[in-house]
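Milestone M4 deliverable, item 7.
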Amino acid sequence: MIFFIIILGACLGSFCTSLASRIIEKKPFFISRSFCFSCDTKLKYYEIIPIFSYIFLKAKCQTCKCHLPISLLINEILGAILLILVYSLSQNFYDFLFLSLFLFNLFLLSLIDIKLKAVPQILLWSAFLFAFFYAFRESEILHFLIFKEFSGGFLLNAFSFGGFVFLLKSLVFFLMNFQKKDEILENLGDADIIIMSCIGGILGFEYGFLVLFIASILTLPFFIFFRIKAIKEQELAMIPFLNIAFVAVLFYKNLGLF
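Output delivered:
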């Protein structure tokens, strides 16, 4: 089973990498087979085997000899590791299915966010939908519709934590620009708030705040580097850090360490 999980995870990591590249490069997806982005040559079946193809092809396209980025191999390995974590955290197939969909959706969003500093709305709301079904309770929909005894479920946690993050964002935005007239800085995007709502819905307010805190700590070295190198463009993709922090907290929470 573990061997199957590793293969499936590597395939999902490869799929997310390919889909992210097509979205970033504005290439058609779900229409044509996998192809080389340098020469547009369609890849043969043995050229798209996760991990092994990268090694056997010596990180080069067989047609144009273009060097393949090491990120392809890293993303496939990360996909395998991620699915192993999902398998270890799942109580049944239902949990495994929707936790996998949610985490690989976050993985895809992270890859896009790193390059574009923006993500498609459809992927954000699909992540919210997967998170909802992962944390689903039978009475959730009824309580949401009639607002009676509406407590302790995904939707309440998501709404309350999303509102908290929005207020925190607005406060920081105000303090950062209190004495500035022309320059306007943005500290946390709307996409990040939606992702934080998903995380808060699954983990609850306390652990959701812990994820936000850990993700913020992880970004500090990068901003320190920007400051040392006097880099004016200090925009940083937040979703990858939220993804890492969420996986860490979810894993350790399920082990009873938090």
